[in-house]
Design a protein that fits this description.
GO terms for molecular function: methyltransferase activity. It comes from Streptomyces ureilyticus. This is Class I SAM-dependent methyltransferase. Keywords: Methyltransferase, Transferase. With 231 residues, this protein is an alpha/beta fold. Strands 3-2-1-4-5-10-9 form a 7-stranded mixed sheet, sandwiched between helices. The chain has a 3-stranded antiparallel sheet with strand order 6-7-8. Helix 7 links the parallel strand 4 and strand 5. The longest helix is centred in the N-terminal third of the chain and has 15 residues.
Length: 231
């Protein structure tokens, strides 16, 4: 294990290499992905948050995973276009959500560009997997995908969940190591955003955002609009 951990040490690993490893991890994790929802009641309860969020019209869901949130979105939306890079998780999502107003598409969020605009862009447990250096480009993609007066809505782990992770090194605050059932260990981006800091970062990128903690410090929920596009 010590040798394997040494091999995982991040010696300035470029974002592209780290993101490729992250994508491989989620492909391999697909059969295990839903276990956390079965084991943690607070996550199942968090699904009810969708009922309180301004999800309307045509919805784009980024990094939909196994579709845990897609069905709830479909109940509120006119249509849902759900993207994920991993075919393995999309297969599970397609089996879980069969609503006629849902279209699943395989696409890498970091290289994908929208061909149309949506009233709502939604992403759950994805923002924390965006490297800090990629935040401006990511939020520009979200902006491109939003119709006038549209909203970006997100849910993610809060800072109170950081204790669950094994950080690569004390100096690497945005890279963690995760182990799968087969014992393999993988580097994954994981950034625990503080609401006030994230609100300021988004303001600097031209967004007006309301980011709040729920469940103590366990989760964050945010609603953001491009400045100048408020209704």
């Amino acid at each position: 294990m010590a040798g394997e951990d040494e091999a995982l040490v991040d010696h300035g690993l470029p974002d592209d290499a780290l993101l490729a490893e992250q994508q491989a991890y989620y492909r391999a994790r697909a059969p295990e992905y839903d276990r956390v929802y079965a084991e943690r009641e607070e996550l199942r309860n968090l699904l009810a948050e969708a009922d309180e969020l301004p999800i309307t019209g045509d919805v784009l869901e980024l990094a939909c995973g196994t579709g845990q949130w897609t069905g709830a979105l479909a109940e509120r939306a006119h249509s849902v276009t759900a993207l994920d890079a991993a075919a393995e998780t999309l297969d599970i999502a397609c089996a879980r959500v069969t609503s006629p107003n849902v279209l699943f598409t395989q696409a890498d969020v970091f290289t994908w560009h929208p061909s149309r605009r949506y009233d709502t862009v939604f992403f759950a447990y994805w923002l924390s997997h965006v490297p800090p250096s990629r935040l401006p480009a990511f939020w520009n993609t979200v902006r491109e995908a939003l119709a006038p007066h549209g909203k970006a809505i997100f849910i993610d782990d809060g800072p109170g969940e950081a204790w669950r992770e094994e950080f690569l090194t004390p100096q690497s605050a945005s890279t963690v190591v995760r182990q799968l059932d087969d014992g393999s260990r993988h580097r994954v981006v994981k950034v625990f955003h503080e609401p006030e800091t994230l609100t300021g970062d988004l303001a600097a990128l031209g967004w007006s955002a309301d980011v709040r903690l729920v469940g103590g410090r366990s989760f964050i929920v945010g609603v953001a609009e491009p400045v100048g596009e408020r209704g």
